[in-house]
Amino acid sequence: MYKRILVPTDGSSCSEAAAKQALGLAKLLDGEVTFLYAIDPVPPALAAEAYGYAVYAEQLIADLRKAAEEALAKAAALAEAEGVRYQTRLEPNARPVDAIVAAMSAFDLVVMGSHGRTGVRRLILGSVTDGVMRQSTKPLLVMRCGADK
């Protein structure tokens, strides 16, 4: 039924909770999990040497990549501890919603976390989970990890 499970991650505790849920399902169903981390494109203004920001943009990109690699390593460690087959996938320069939606056709289930933001914070920060829900062509299991207080 759910043999191939996609788990988008951003390294947060919410993503970790979703990963644990996905790993439990994969173990039960003898499935495989793919952890996906998408790095949002750096705005062109940051990368423009004309403004003198090139050095800062390069450092920002390096820091974002390091955070992505750490998040994927953490997810991989969870999978290894559970004895579940897994893969990691890094999508640099890709909006998270777009990367998840593009990848989902190869999977039976998508498991992801939601921070539970509401009101103005949701408008300002957006919601990757909401964007994926609106475009999903596959079953989606959403772990709500906590609402704003």
Overview of the molecule:
With 149 residues, this protein is an alpha/beta fold. The chain has one domain: HUPs (Rossmann fold, 3-Layer(aba) Sandwich). The chain is 49% helix and 20% strand. It has helices at 13-29, 44-47, 54-82, 96-103, 119-125, 128-135; strands at 4-8, 32-38, 85-91, 109-114, 140-144. The chain has a five-stranded parallel sheet with strand order 3-2-1-4-5, sandwiched between helices. Helix 1 (13-29) links the parallel strand 1 (4-8) and strand 2 (32-38). Helix 4 (96-103) packs parallel to helix 6 (128-135).
Brief overview:
The chain has 149 residues and is of the alpha/beta class.
* SSE-based structural type: alpha/beta
Major sheet, described briefly?
5 strands, parallel
Number of domains as seen in the coordinates? 1
What is the CATH superfamily label?
Answer: HUPs
Shape verdict: globular
Rg calc? 16 Å
Count of strand segments: 5
Q: Which strand order do you get reading across the main beta sheet?
A: 3-2-1-4-5
Task: Set down the secondary structure blueprint.
Blueprint: E1 4-8, H1 13-29, E2 32-38, H2 44-47, H3 54-82, E3 85-91, H4 96-103, E4 109-114, H5 119-125, H6 128-135, E5 140-144
Parallel strand pairs: 1-2, 1-4, 2-3, 4-5
Helix pairs in contact: 1-3, 4-6
